[in-house]
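Task card 7
Instruction: Convert sequence to structure tokens.
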Amino acid sequence: MDRTMMAQKQMTLARTAQANPHHRFKNLYSLLHWDYWIRCAADTVLARPGSLTAGVDGTARRAFQERYEAEITSLVASLKHKTYQPQPVRRVHIPKGNGKTRPLGIATLRDRIVQEALRAILDPIYEADFHPHSYGFRKGRKTMDAIATIMPLFNERAKHYYVIEGDLKSYFDRIDHSVLVDILREKIHDNRFIRLIEHLLKAGYLEEWRYQRSLSGVPQGGVVSPILANLVLDRLDKYVEQILQPLSTHGERRKSNPPYVALTKAACFARKRGNLEAARHYNQQAQRIPSRDPFDPNFRRLWYLRYADDWLIGVTGPRAEAQAIKDQIATFLREQLKLELSDAKTLITHAQTGRARFLGYDIHILHANDKHDHRGQRCINGAIGLRVPDHIIPSYSKKYMRNGKPVHLMPRVNDTAYSIVAQYQAEYRGIVQYYRLAYNLHRLSSLKRVMELSLAQTLAHKFKTSRAAIFRRYKTTRTTPDGTYRVLEVTVERGPDKPALTIYFGGISLRWNKWVTISDAVEPIWSGRSEVVQRLLAQQCEICGSSDRIEVHHIRKLADLNHKDGANPPLWVRIMARRRRKTLVVCQRCHNAIHYGRYDGPTFTKEATGERRDTESGHASFGGGPLGAPRSASAVWQ
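Output:
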């Protein structure tokens, strides 16, 4: 019921915003007084894996849920009486792909709930106003959607074509608070609501337990940060759409190229005179030059696409005009939004002689005078091409190689053959699916070969046999809608009444199809069952081999195993560490012994394991005994 009421109010806000783009919303702060609004926000925040991480107050999901009613009541009251004060975020640094680090702000759960409540108000108000070609920072507009937009958007065939790759310098850290608040005030006429957002922005952060003030920027990792960041960049979208595009878009079609026209006429006259050799010579010369004037001053186009703080502009015109557009954008960002372009990452690239980089793809103009359609006309020249960058295959292959050769992956050796093949297939499918629109997709066959050899080597290491024996055992053919492929296939029998589980590596087409629909949905590889369930189906304790009252022991994270008795950990710790699993299927006797420290060493603390003791709750049982115990606390929190 609470969700329904919240959705109805959001629909009302969205309809009002769509019907009147200049409407100023009032009394939005009162929504934060509504108990159900805060409860819905709290349920959303607590359902995310990030709620297991505490902010500066040390409160994580379990502790919050234990006093849920008191926390919600207190939060609603503090918002209603305007006594709510956000706490500083806890700043940590996470590694980036280039070797640098990115600062991440972890707010307290109370602050995250308030931010989620604010986001639920801001989203329906501003979503209708955002530019149709802006992606990222928005729900349902993912990386795959932006990539699929590139080809139909940048569709003007032109040799004289420049691409501007834009990137902002430390965008999240440099957002000016006054600019952001002014943007909010244009549509929201509620000082209490605006002041609450200002307090969140100026809450500061703790880094190595030293307080630092927030003079600018929004914390990366904040719940409401994406939409606030998008509000500022939406001004750039509007500037390009309303100012730059009209100035750089004119002319219906390029005029004909005089040298091309002269050669085609000469070929026509030679053919009429019966001189077929001369006609063929003139046609061949004409095929080497464009049919339309690439330097036509009366024809210009500009296209724009943005993903988060990275943007791409395509310009049909000379380099001087592309440079002028870049300078105009830099001036607008500096004077109006108080932001700076990154000089190292903002590049102007000739799309035929160079390649622009956007969202992991190389983008350039295709050129092939020898490719013709059914009419005999050149069909490739000037079209936009998406390409797998040259460094992608070596960088991905490195994970599966050592000293230049494919090797086994030791962390996976202790998994089942089914699980090993499933992991390799999921990784391979993810890479192929991401680069599905690349015309050189076929080059991923070399990565596939490296992964296939590594997979075979891993299985060989597991079964103490040779790689050739693995290929003889598992190699087969599989027919798919795209064709027949040679694959490595593992089948797990499940008895006479159930179909066997089958997983295979390979069987994915690497044929280019520029009209393919990209989907980032994860295909199920366990047929609806996890490996834990399959281990439970065995009905056998993984420590002592007993089949009496089978349960599951959980730990919070694998790192907790490192603190168990130093150099002489208990047997159950060694088993979990070797399998690299946070679960262990055990009988009730071994489970109790683990918790009370009677199994091969002292017990973990409640905080370290993340699991309650038997005196606090029952444990997850699977067909074991008359207890009929509910799921363990650890199963709820995992």
